[in-house]
Amino acid sequence: MNVANWLADAADRQPGNPALLQGEHLVADYAGFRALARQAGRRLAADHGIMPGDRVAVFMKNATDYLVLLYGIWWCGAVVVPINCKLHPAEAAEIIRDAGARLVFTDDGDIFGDALLVDGCLENTSVDYATGLPARSDADPLARPISRAPGDLAWLFYTSGTTGKSKGVMLSHGNLTAMSLCYPVDVEPVTSNDAILYCAPMSHGAGLYNFIFVRTAARHVIPESRGFDPDEVFSIASVIQNVSFFAAPTMVKRLVDAVERHGLASDGIRSIILGGAPMYRADLERALAIIGPKFIQIYGQGESPMTITALAKDIIADRSHPEWKRFVTSVGHAQSCVEVRVLSEKGKPAGWGVRGEVAVRGGTVMKGYWRNQPATDAAIVDGWLRTGDIGYLDEDGLLTLTDRSKDVVISGGSNIYPREVEEVLALHPDVKEVAIVGQRDPEWGEVVVAFVALRPQSQQDEESLLSWFVSRMASFKKPRRFVFVPELPKNGYGKIAKTELRALLESDKPALGIAA
Ligand code: AMP
Fold first, then answer.
1. Does ligand 1 have an atom closer than 6 angstroms to the CB of 249?
2. What does DSSP assign to residue 392?
3. Residue nearest to atom 10 of ligand 1 (CA)
4. pTM value?
5. Does residue 364's CB lie within 6 angstroms of at least one atom of ligand 1?
6. pLDDT, tens digit, for every residue of 474-483?
7. Domains of the chain (ranges, CATH numbers)
Protein backbone atom coordinates (compact mmCIF):
# COMPACT_ATOMS: atom_id res chain seq x y z
CA MET A 1 0.00 0.00 0.00
CA ASN A 2 1.85 3.05 -1.28
CA VAL A 3 0.14 6.28 -0.10
CA ALA A 4 0.78 7.70 -3.58
CA ASN A 5 -1.86 5.27 -4.88
CA TRP A 6 -4.43 7.63 -3.39
CA LEU A 7 -3.31 10.37 -5.76
CA ALA A 8 -3.29 7.98 -8.74
CA ASP A 9 -6.81 6.79 -7.85
CA ALA A 10 -8.20 10.27 -7.20
CA ALA A 11 -6.94 11.38 -10.62
CA ASP A 12 -8.52 8.31 -12.24
CA ARG A 13 -11.85 9.07 -10.64
CA GLN A 14 -11.97 12.86 -10.75
CA PRO A 15 -9.25 14.10 -13.13
CA GLY A 16 -10.80 17.54 -13.62
CA ASN A 17 -11.29 18.37 -9.93
CA PRO A 18 -9.25 21.36 -8.82
CA ALA A 19 -6.31 20.00 -6.83
CA LEU A 20 -3.55 22.52 -6.14
CA LEU A 21 -4.17 26.20 -5.52
CA GLN A 22 -1.73 28.99 -4.78
CA GLY A 23 -3.88 31.44 -2.85
CA GLU A 24 -7.03 31.69 -4.93
CA HIS A 25 -5.33 30.63 -8.18
CA LEU A 26 -5.58 27.16 -9.60
CA VAL A 27 -2.19 25.55 -10.30
CA ALA A 28 -3.29 22.02 -11.26
CA ASP A 29 -6.31 19.77 -11.40
CA TYR A 30 -6.03 16.15 -10.27
CA ALA A 31 -4.84 14.93 -13.68
CA GLY A 32 -2.20 17.68 -13.62
CA PHE A 33 -1.18 16.97 -10.03
CA ARG A 34 -0.72 13.30 -10.85
CA ALA A 35 1.28 14.12 -13.99
CA LEU A 36 3.62 16.39 -12.01
CA ALA A 37 4.09 13.85 -9.23
CA ARG A 38 4.72 11.05 -11.71
CA GLN A 39 7.22 13.22 -13.56
CA ALA A 40 8.98 14.05 -10.29
CA GLY A 41 9.09 10.36 -9.38
CA ARG A 42 10.49 9.51 -12.78
CA ARG A 43 13.21 12.13 -12.51
CA LEU A 44 14.15 11.03 -9.03
CA ALA A 45 14.58 7.47 -10.25
CA ALA A 46 16.08 8.14 -13.67
CA ASP A 47 18.19 11.24 -13.14
CA HIS A 48 19.21 10.84 -9.54
CA GLY A 49 19.18 7.08 -9.19
CA ILE A 50 16.82 7.22 -6.21
CA MET A 51 15.79 3.68 -5.30
CA PRO A 52 12.86 2.45 -3.18
CA GLY A 53 13.72 3.01 0.49
CA ASP A 54 16.18 5.85 -0.22
CA ARG A 55 15.64 8.96 1.83
CA VAL A 56 14.93 12.31 0.16
CA ALA A 57 14.79 15.42 2.33
CA VAL A 58 12.48 18.39 1.81
CA PHE A 59 13.64 21.59 3.50
CA MET A 60 11.21 24.10 2.06
CA LYS A 61 8.50 26.53 2.99
CA ASN A 62 4.95 25.50 2.18
CA ALA A 63 4.31 25.37 -1.58
CA THR A 64 2.19 23.51 -4.10
CA ASP A 65 5.51 22.01 -5.23
CA TYR A 66 5.88 20.61 -1.74
CA LEU A 67 2.93 18.30 -2.37
CA VAL A 68 4.21 17.44 -5.85
CA LEU A 69 7.55 16.47 -4.33
CA LEU A 70 6.03 14.39 -1.54
CA TYR A 71 4.02 12.36 -4.03
CA GLY A 72 6.95 12.20 -6.47
CA ILE A 73 9.16 10.78 -3.74
CA TRP A 74 6.56 8.18 -2.78
CA TRP A 75 5.82 7.45 -6.44
CA CYS A 76 9.30 5.99 -6.86
CA GLY A 77 9.11 4.19 -3.49
CA ALA A 78 11.46 6.53 -1.63
CA VAL A 79 11.08 8.00 1.86
CA VAL A 80 10.34 11.66 2.66
CA VAL A 81 12.45 13.37 5.31
CA PRO A 82 10.45 16.56 6.04
CA ILE A 83 12.50 19.29 7.71
CA ASN A 84 10.98 22.26 9.48
CA CYS A 85 11.79 25.21 7.20
CA LYS A 86 12.42 27.40 10.25
CA LEU A 87 15.47 25.39 11.29
CA HIS A 88 18.95 26.77 10.76
CA PRO A 89 20.67 25.15 7.75
CA ALA A 90 23.23 23.66 10.15
CA GLU A 91 20.43 21.94 12.09
CA ALA A 92 18.86 20.76 8.83
CA ALA A 93 22.23 19.41 7.72
CA GLU A 94 22.45 17.40 10.93
CA ILE A 95 19.08 15.78 10.14
CA ILE A 96 20.04 15.12 6.54
CA ARG A 97 23.21 13.39 7.68
CA ASP A 98 21.49 11.32 10.31
CA ALA A 99 18.82 10.21 7.83
CA GLY A 100 21.47 9.46 5.21
CA ALA A 101 19.36 11.37 2.68
CA ARG A 102 20.64 11.21 -0.89
CA LEU A 103 18.95 14.35 -2.11
CA VAL A 104 17.52 17.45 -0.49
CA PHE A 105 15.04 19.88 -1.96
CA THR A 106 15.32 23.49 -0.85
CA ASP A 107 13.88 26.83 -1.87
CA ASP A 108 17.38 28.14 -2.31
CA GLY A 109 19.98 25.78 -3.77
CA ASP A 110 22.88 27.62 -2.09
CA ILE A 111 21.54 27.45 1.40
CA PHE A 112 24.00 24.82 2.64
CA GLY A 113 27.10 26.07 0.86
CA ASP A 114 29.49 23.14 0.78
CA ALA A 115 28.35 21.73 4.10
CA LEU A 116 26.57 18.74 2.67
CA LEU A 117 28.89 18.04 -0.21
CA VAL A 118 31.80 17.92 2.19
CA ASP A 119 30.06 15.06 3.90
CA GLY A 120 29.63 13.48 0.50
CA CYS A 121 26.10 12.48 1.28
CA LEU A 122 24.02 14.05 -1.38
CA GLU A 123 23.03 16.49 -4.03
CA ASN A 124 21.19 19.65 -3.14
CA THR A 125 18.49 20.65 -5.58
CA SER A 126 16.31 23.71 -5.59
CA VAL A 127 12.66 23.39 -6.19
CA ASP A 128 12.33 24.18 -9.90
CA TYR A 129 12.73 20.45 -10.11
CA ALA A 130 9.04 19.95 -9.57
CA THR A 131 7.77 22.30 -12.22
CA GLY A 132 7.75 19.77 -15.01
CA LEU A 133 11.18 20.30 -16.60
CA PRO A 134 12.02 17.43 -18.96
CA ALA A 135 14.01 14.62 -17.43
CA ARG A 136 17.64 14.35 -18.48
CA SER A 137 17.10 10.71 -19.26
CA ASP A 138 14.21 9.52 -21.41
CA ALA A 139 13.34 6.51 -19.29
CA ASP A 140 9.63 5.69 -19.31
CA PRO A 141 7.51 7.30 -16.62
CA LEU A 142 6.46 5.02 -13.84
CA ALA A 143 2.84 4.48 -14.76
CA ARG A 144 1.75 3.66 -11.19
CA PRO A 145 3.49 4.24 -7.87
CA ILE A 146 6.04 1.57 -6.97
CA SER A 147 4.39 -1.08 -4.81
CA ARG A 148 5.11 -0.71 -1.09
CA ALA A 149 4.24 -2.98 1.82
CA PRO A 150 2.28 -1.48 4.74
CA GLY A 151 5.37 -1.68 6.96
CA ASP A 152 7.68 0.08 4.49
CA LEU A 153 9.03 3.42 5.59
CA ALA A 154 7.33 6.52 4.11
CA TRP A 155 7.99 9.50 6.42
CA LEU A 156 11.08 10.00 8.56
CA PHE A 157 10.23 12.91 10.80
CA TYR A 158 12.70 14.41 13.27
CA THR A 159 11.43 15.35 16.73
CA SER A 160 12.16 18.84 17.97
CA GLY A 161 14.77 17.42 20.32
CA THR A 162 13.57 19.27 23.39
CA THR A 163 14.69 16.41 25.64
CA GLY A 164 18.01 15.74 23.99
CA LYS A 165 19.21 14.93 20.51
CA SER A 166 16.57 15.02 17.80
CA LYS A 167 15.40 11.52 16.85
CA GLY A 168 14.03 10.25 13.54
CA VAL A 169 10.48 8.92 13.93
CA MET A 170 9.87 6.14 11.39
CA LEU A 171 6.33 6.19 9.98
CA SER A 172 5.31 3.59 7.46
CA HIS A 173 2.81 3.71 4.62
CA GLY A 174 0.52 1.68 6.91
CA ASN A 175 0.88 4.25 9.73
CA LEU A 176 -0.01 7.11 7.39
CA THR A 177 -2.99 5.22 6.00
CA ALA A 178 -4.32 4.44 9.50
CA MET A 179 -3.86 8.07 10.53
CA SER A 180 -5.68 9.32 7.45
CA LEU A 181 -8.62 6.95 7.81
CA CYS A 182 -9.22 8.18 11.34
CA TYR A 183 -9.78 11.70 10.05
CA PRO A 184 -13.23 11.20 8.46
CA VAL A 185 -14.33 9.03 11.39
CA ASP A 186 -12.95 10.94 14.36
CA VAL A 187 -12.36 14.48 13.11
CA GLU A 188 -14.93 14.98 10.37
CA PRO A 189 -15.99 13.56 7.00
CA VAL A 190 -14.37 15.02 3.89
CA THR A 191 -15.78 15.35 0.37
CA SER A 192 -14.44 16.75 -2.87
CA ASN A 193 -16.16 20.07 -2.03
CA ASP A 194 -13.75 20.58 0.85
CA ALA A 195 -10.47 22.42 0.87
CA ILE A 196 -7.47 22.07 3.14
CA LEU A 197 -5.39 25.16 3.78
CA TYR A 198 -1.73 24.76 4.70
CA CYS A 199 -0.92 27.68 6.97
CA ALA A 200 1.13 25.70 9.51
CA PRO A 201 4.37 24.03 8.38
CA MET A 202 3.79 21.13 5.99
CA SER A 203 6.74 19.29 7.49
CA HIS A 204 4.53 18.55 10.50
CA GLY A 205 0.85 17.90 11.21
CA ALA A 206 -0.54 20.28 8.61
CA GLY A 207 1.27 18.37 5.85
CA LEU A 208 0.26 15.00 7.24
CA TYR A 209 -3.38 15.97 6.94
CA ASN A 210 -3.08 16.08 3.14
CA PHE A 211 -3.81 12.40 2.49
CA ILE A 212 -7.52 12.21 3.12
CA PHE A 213 -8.00 15.39 1.07
CA VAL A 214 -6.09 13.72 -1.78
CA ARG A 215 -8.09 10.54 -1.42
CA THR A 216 -11.36 12.49 -1.76
CA ALA A 217 -10.05 14.67 -4.62
CA ALA A 218 -10.55 17.83 -2.55
CA ARG A 219 -8.66 21.13 -2.93
CA HIS A 220 -5.23 21.87 -1.44
CA VAL A 221 -4.58 25.54 -0.85
CA ILE A 222 -1.21 27.13 -0.12
CA PRO A 223 -1.34 30.73 1.07
CA GLU A 224 0.54 33.18 -1.20
CA SER A 225 2.62 34.12 1.85
CA ARG A 226 3.63 30.43 2.14
CA GLY A 227 3.16 30.82 5.88
CA PHE A 228 0.68 31.96 8.49
CA ASP A 229 -0.91 35.37 8.09
CA PRO A 230 -4.26 35.56 9.91
CA ASP A 231 -5.77 38.19 7.59
CA GLU A 232 -4.79 36.13 4.57
CA VAL A 233 -6.40 33.00 6.06
CA PHE A 234 -9.77 34.76 6.31
CA SER A 235 -9.50 36.33 2.92
CA ILE A 236 -8.63 33.02 1.19
CA ALA A 237 -11.37 31.19 3.08
CA SER A 238 -14.00 33.73 2.05
CA VAL A 239 -13.22 33.05 -1.62
CA ILE A 240 -12.43 29.32 -1.53
CA GLN A 241 -15.15 28.30 1.00
CA ASN A 242 -15.37 25.02 2.98
CA VAL A 243 -11.82 25.50 4.19
CA SER A 244 -10.37 23.42 7.02
CA PHE A 245 -6.91 23.65 8.48
CA PHE A 246 -4.69 22.56 11.32
CA ALA A 247 -3.54 25.24 13.77
CA ALA A 248 -1.58 25.28 17.01
CA PRO A 249 -3.25 27.18 19.89
CA THR A 250 -0.93 30.17 19.43
CA MET A 251 -2.14 30.46 15.83
CA VAL A 252 -5.76 30.29 16.95
CA LYS A 253 -5.13 33.20 19.30
CA ARG A 254 -3.71 35.25 16.46
CA LEU A 255 -6.75 34.43 14.31
CA VAL A 256 -9.05 35.55 17.10
CA ASP A 257 -7.09 38.79 17.55
CA ALA A 258 -7.30 39.45 13.81
CA VAL A 259 -11.09 39.04 13.79
CA GLU A 260 -11.41 41.32 16.78
CA ARG A 261 -9.17 43.94 15.22
CA HIS A 262 -10.46 43.91 11.67
CA GLY A 263 -13.95 42.44 11.99
CA LEU A 264 -13.18 39.66 9.49
CA ALA A 265 -15.86 37.18 8.49
CA SER A 266 -15.15 33.52 9.16
CA ASP A 267 -17.96 32.04 7.07
CA GLY A 268 -15.55 30.43 4.55
CA ILE A 269 -13.92 28.39 7.32
CA ARG A 270 -15.44 24.99 7.85
CA SER A 271 -13.20 23.73 10.65
CA ILE A 272 -10.08 24.59 12.58
CA ILE A 273 -8.39 21.48 13.88
CA LEU A 274 -6.37 22.54 16.84
CA GLY A 275 -3.71 20.60 18.63
CA GLY A 276 -0.02 20.30 19.26
CA ALA A 277 -0.11 22.09 22.63
CA PRO A 278 -2.62 22.80 25.41
CA MET A 279 -5.55 25.04 24.49
CA TYR A 280 -6.65 26.75 27.68
CA ARG A 281 -10.36 26.91 28.35
CA ALA A 282 -10.36 30.69 28.56
CA ASP A 283 -8.78 30.91 25.10
CA LEU A 284 -11.20 28.39 23.67
CA GLU A 285 -14.20 30.30 25.05
CA ARG A 286 -12.95 33.47 23.44
CA ALA A 287 -12.26 31.69 20.14
CA LEU A 288 -15.78 30.21 20.09
CA ALA A 289 -17.35 33.55 20.88
CA ILE A 290 -15.41 35.38 18.19
CA ILE A 291 -14.88 32.83 15.39
CA GLY A 292 -17.82 30.52 16.03
CA PRO A 293 -18.37 26.78 16.54
CA LYS A 294 -15.66 25.63 14.15
CA PHE A 295 -13.18 23.93 16.45
CA ILE A 296 -12.15 20.32 16.76
CA GLN A 297 -9.32 19.39 19.08
CA ILE A 298 -6.91 16.57 18.43
CA TYR A 299 -4.08 15.17 20.50
CA GLY A 300 -1.22 13.31 18.92
CA GLN A 301 2.55 13.33 18.78
CA GLY A 302 5.14 12.68 16.09
CA GLU A 303 5.32 9.06 17.27
CA SER A 304 1.54 8.57 16.74
CA PRO A 305 0.88 11.44 14.38
CA MET A 306 -2.29 13.49 14.86
CA THR A 307 -3.95 10.39 16.23
CA ILE A 308 -4.34 9.65 19.90
CA THR A 309 -7.59 11.37 20.87
CA ALA A 310 -10.07 13.82 19.35
CA LEU A 311 -12.65 16.13 20.91
CA ALA A 312 -15.58 16.51 18.56
CA LYS A 313 -16.84 19.79 17.17
CA ASP A 314 -20.35 19.42 18.62
CA ILE A 315 -18.99 18.76 22.12
CA ILE A 316 -16.81 21.86 21.95
CA ALA A 317 -19.65 23.95 20.53
CA ASP A 318 -22.30 22.99 23.09
CA ARG A 319 -21.54 25.51 25.81
CA SER A 320 -24.92 25.01 27.42
CA HIS A 321 -24.03 21.46 28.45
CA PRO A 322 -23.67 21.30 32.26
CA GLU A 323 -20.39 19.40 31.89
CA TRP A 324 -18.97 21.60 29.12
CA LYS A 325 -16.07 22.82 31.24
CA ARG A 326 -14.94 19.31 32.03
CA PHE A 327 -15.33 18.24 28.41
CA VAL A 328 -13.27 21.04 26.94
CA THR A 329 -10.53 20.72 29.52
CA SER A 330 -10.02 17.24 28.11
CA VAL A 331 -8.53 16.26 24.75
CA GLY A 332 -11.47 13.96 24.01
CA HIS A 333 -11.83 10.29 23.25
CA ALA A 334 -9.43 7.74 21.76
CA GLN A 335 -9.44 7.85 17.95
CA SER A 336 -10.73 4.77 16.21
CA CYS A 337 -7.50 3.05 15.22
CA VAL A 338 -5.84 3.28 18.63
CA GLU A 339 -6.27 2.19 22.23
CA VAL A 340 -5.34 4.64 24.96
CA ARG A 341 -4.29 3.82 28.52
CA VAL A 342 -3.00 5.71 31.49
CA LEU A 343 -0.23 3.84 33.29
CA SER A 344 0.75 4.04 36.92
CA GLU A 345 4.41 4.34 37.91
CA LYS A 346 4.59 0.54 37.96
CA GLY A 347 3.40 0.43 34.35
CA LYS A 348 -0.06 -0.96 35.23
CA PRO A 349 -3.30 0.66 34.04
CA ALA A 350 -4.28 3.40 36.49
CA GLY A 351 -7.86 3.74 37.77
CA TRP A 352 -10.39 6.29 36.52
CA GLY A 353 -9.34 9.79 37.46
CA VAL A 354 -5.85 8.67 38.54
CA ARG A 355 -2.97 10.45 36.89
CA GLY A 356 -0.26 8.56 35.10
CA GLU A 357 1.62 8.38 31.83
CA VAL A 358 -0.50 8.20 28.70
CA ALA A 359 0.27 5.17 26.53
CA VAL A 360 -1.11 4.35 23.10
CA ARG A 361 -1.21 1.29 20.88
CA GLY A 362 -2.52 0.89 17.35
CA GLY A 363 -2.10 1.44 13.64
CA THR A 364 -0.58 4.89 13.84
CA VAL A 365 2.19 4.10 16.31
CA MET A 366 5.63 4.51 14.72
CA LYS A 367 7.87 1.61 13.79
CA GLY A 368 10.52 3.08 16.08
CA TYR A 369 13.31 5.64 16.00
CA TRP A 370 15.67 5.60 13.06
CA ARG A 371 18.82 3.66 13.84
CA ASN A 372 18.24 4.10 17.56
CA GLN A 373 17.15 0.84 19.16
CA PRO A 374 17.74 1.94 22.78
CA ALA A 375 15.44 4.94 22.32
CA THR A 376 12.87 2.74 20.55
CA ASP A 377 12.94 0.19 23.38
CA ALA A 378 12.42 2.94 25.93
CA ALA A 379 9.52 4.46 23.98
CA ILE A 380 7.61 1.32 22.96
CA VAL A 381 7.15 -1.14 25.81
CA ASP A 382 5.12 -4.31 25.18
CA GLY A 383 3.69 -2.71 22.06
CA TRP A 384 2.53 0.43 23.90
CA LEU A 385 4.01 3.80 23.02
CA ARG A 386 4.88 5.76 26.17
CA THR A 387 3.96 9.30 25.23
CA GLY A 388 5.72 11.11 28.09
CA ASP A 389 2.44 12.97 28.68
CA ILE A 390 0.73 12.85 32.06
CA GLY A 391 -3.04 12.65 32.22
CA TYR A 392 -6.07 10.77 33.47
CA LEU A 393 -9.06 9.01 31.95
CA ASP A 394 -12.63 9.58 33.10
CA GLU A 395 -15.18 6.81 33.30
CA ASP A 396 -16.69 8.15 30.09
CA GLY A 397 -13.42 7.69 28.23
CA LEU A 398 -12.36 11.33 28.11
CA LEU A 399 -8.63 11.88 28.44
CA THR A 400 -7.41 14.98 30.24
CA LEU A 401 -3.76 15.91 29.90
CA THR A 402 -2.13 17.55 32.83
CA ASP A 403 1.40 17.85 31.54
CA ARG A 404 4.49 16.46 29.95
CA SER A 405 6.11 14.21 32.57
CA LYS A 406 9.28 16.25 32.39
CA ASP A 407 7.37 19.50 32.99
CA VAL A 408 5.88 18.55 36.34
CA VAL A 409 7.22 20.85 39.05
CA ILE A 410 8.02 19.11 42.32
CA SER A 411 8.01 21.69 45.07
CA GLY A 412 8.42 20.72 48.71
CA GLY A 413 7.52 17.14 47.74
CA SER A 414 4.21 18.12 46.08
CA ASN A 415 3.62 17.59 42.37
CA ILE A 416 2.40 20.75 40.72
CA TYR A 417 1.07 20.41 37.19
CA PRO A 418 1.91 23.57 35.21
CA ARG A 419 -1.15 23.12 33.01
CA GLU A 420 -3.48 23.66 36.01
CA VAL A 421 -1.71 26.82 37.08
CA GLU A 422 -1.62 28.08 33.49
CA GLU A 423 -5.36 27.49 33.11
CA VAL A 424 -6.08 29.72 36.11
CA LEU A 425 -3.81 32.55 35.01
CA ALA A 426 -5.07 32.31 31.42
CA LEU A 427 -8.56 33.07 32.72
CA HIS A 428 -7.38 36.54 33.75
CA PRO A 429 -8.69 38.99 31.14
CA ASP A 430 -5.36 40.87 30.97
CA VAL A 431 -3.19 37.79 30.46
CA LYS A 432 -2.34 37.19 26.81
CA GLU A 433 -0.01 34.22 27.26
CA VAL A 434 1.35 32.32 30.20
CA ALA A 435 3.83 29.51 30.75
CA ILE A 436 4.72 27.89 34.04
CA VAL A 437 8.12 26.32 34.61
CA GLY A 438 10.00 25.02 37.61
CA GLN A 439 13.13 26.72 38.90
CA ARG A 440 15.65 24.94 41.07
CA ASP A 441 15.49 26.11 44.64
CA PRO A 442 17.67 25.15 47.61
CA GLU A 443 14.77 25.10 50.03
CA TRP A 444 11.86 23.67 48.03
CA GLY A 445 13.69 21.61 45.44
CA GLU A 446 11.82 23.56 42.79
CA VAL A 447 9.55 26.57 42.82
CA VAL A 448 6.86 27.60 40.37
CA VAL A 449 7.76 30.50 38.07
CA ALA A 450 5.15 32.16 35.85
CA PHE A 451 6.20 33.76 32.58
CA VAL A 452 3.42 36.11 31.60
CA ALA A 453 2.75 38.22 28.51
CA LEU A 454 0.09 40.82 29.25
CA ARG A 455 -2.36 42.35 26.81
CA PRO A 456 -1.41 45.86 25.64
CA GLN A 457 -2.20 48.67 28.07
CA SER A 458 -2.78 46.31 30.96
CA GLN A 459 -1.76 47.47 34.41
CA GLN A 460 -1.33 44.13 36.14
CA ASP A 461 1.64 43.39 38.32
CA GLU A 462 2.89 40.47 40.40
CA GLU A 463 0.73 41.36 43.39
CA SER A 464 -2.54 41.65 41.49
CA LEU A 465 -1.95 38.41 39.58
CA LEU A 466 -1.08 36.64 42.78
CA SER A 467 -4.30 37.74 44.45
CA TRP A 468 -6.24 36.56 41.36
CA PHE A 469 -4.49 33.24 41.71
CA VAL A 470 -4.85 32.60 45.43
CA SER A 471 -8.58 33.29 45.33
CA ARG A 472 -8.90 30.38 42.88
CA MET A 473 -6.31 27.75 43.68
CA ALA A 474 -4.40 26.10 46.53
CA SER A 475 -1.72 28.40 47.78
CA PHE A 476 1.08 25.79 47.55
CA LYS A 477 0.69 25.94 43.75
CA LYS A 478 1.13 29.68 43.54
CA PRO A 479 3.99 31.08 41.47
CA ARG A 480 6.87 32.28 43.64
CA ARG A 481 8.06 34.53 40.91
CA PHE A 482 6.44 36.31 37.95
CA VAL A 483 8.50 37.23 34.92
CA PHE A 484 6.76 39.66 32.57
CA VAL A 485 7.69 39.35 28.92
CA PRO A 486 6.31 41.04 25.80
CA GLU A 487 5.79 37.65 24.17
CA LEU A 488 6.66 34.05 25.01
CA PRO A 489 9.32 32.34 22.88
CA LYS A 490 7.95 29.71 20.46
CA ASN A 491 9.56 26.92 18.50
CA GLY A 492 9.21 26.52 14.73
CA TYR A 493 5.79 24.92 15.18
CA GLY A 494 4.38 27.69 17.36
CA LYS A 495 4.71 25.81 20.64
CA ILE A 496 5.87 27.71 23.68
CA ALA A 497 9.54 26.85 24.12
CA LYS A 498 9.71 26.00 27.81
CA THR A 499 13.29 24.81 27.44
CA GLU A 500 14.26 28.38 26.54
CA LEU A 501 12.41 29.73 29.55
CA ARG A 502 14.12 27.21 31.82
CA ALA A 503 17.49 28.07 30.35
CA LEU A 504 16.84 31.75 31.08
CA LEU A 505 16.04 30.92 34.66
CA GLU A 506 19.05 28.66 35.01
CA SER A 507 21.43 31.29 33.72
CA ASP A 508 19.48 33.86 35.72
CA LYS A 509 20.39 36.47 33.19
CA PRO A 510 17.03 37.79 32.13
CA ALA A 511 17.41 38.50 28.45
CA LEU A 512 15.15 39.31 25.49
CA GLY A 513 13.67 42.27 27.32
CA ILE A 514 12.71 40.15 30.29
CA ALA A 515 12.46 42.08 33.51
CA ALA A 516 12.50 39.91 36.59
P1 AMP B 1 4.99 16.74 18.62
O2 AMP B 1 5.55 15.38 18.65
O3 AMP B 1 5.98 17.83 18.32
O4 AMP B 1 3.78 16.83 17.76
O5 AMP B 1 4.51 17.10 20.11
C6 AMP B 1 3.56 16.28 20.70
C7 AMP B 1 3.26 16.76 22.09
O8 AMP B 1 2.48 17.97 22.05
C9 AMP B 1 2.39 15.77 22.82
O10 AMP B 1 3.13 14.70 23.37
C11 AMP B 1 1.74 16.66 23.87
O12 AMP B 1 2.62 16.91 24.94
C13 AMP B 1 1.53 17.96 23.11
N14 AMP B 1 0.18 18.01 22.55
C15 AMP B 1 -0.23 17.61 21.34
N16 AMP B 1 -1.55 17.82 21.18
C17 AMP B 1 -2.00 18.35 22.34
C18 AMP B 1 -3.27 18.80 22.83
N19 AMP B 1 -4.37 18.76 22.06
N20 AMP B 1 -3.33 19.29 24.09
C21 AMP B 1 -2.23 19.36 24.87
N22 AMP B 1 -1.01 18.98 24.48
C23 AMP B 1 -0.88 18.47 23.23
1. no
2. E
3. 301
4. 0.87
5. no
6. 888 999 999 9
7. 4-339 (3.40.50.12780), 408-512 (3.30.300.30)
